[in-house]
Amino acid sequence: MVNVVPGAAGAVPGVVIAAPGVPRCRARHHEPMPLTFLLIARLPEGGAEAFDAYEDAVLPLLAEYGGRLERRVRSLDDGTEVHLVGFPGEQEFEAYRNDPRRAEHAHLLERSGAAVELLPVRDLTSRNPPSGR
C-alpha cells in the first residue's frame, strides 16, 4: 500500500510524496539508510521556463545536505521531467525539504503548473547489469 502525503512537513505546494514505508536505518547497526528518489514532474504547455527557474534555485541546495542529482532528463516535448536524486539518509532528506530557501522559490513551482510526484526507489542494476550498448 502506498501512502500519499500531500502537504507533509516542509513540503512545497504541488509536490506529492508516495512513500510505501521508506526504511529509516539498517537494522543491525542503526546506520542511516541511503535514500534514492525518482521525481516525476508533469509540465503543462508553457510551464518549463518557470519550472527551470525553480530548479535552478533549489537544485544547488542538494549538496549542502549530502544530496546528489544523479540524473535529470526531460521528454522531447518538454511535458515531463524526471530526476533521480539520492540522500545519505532520511535526516538529510528532511533537512533539504525543510530548507526555507526552497519555500522562498515555491511560487516559481506553482507558476509552472507542474504536477510533481516523488517516489522512493531502489536500485536493481545488480540484478540486470547494463549491457554496454
TrEMBL record:
InterPro entries on file: Dimeric_a/b-barrel
Organism name: Amycolatopsis thermoflava
Name of this chain's protein: DUF1330 domain-containing protein
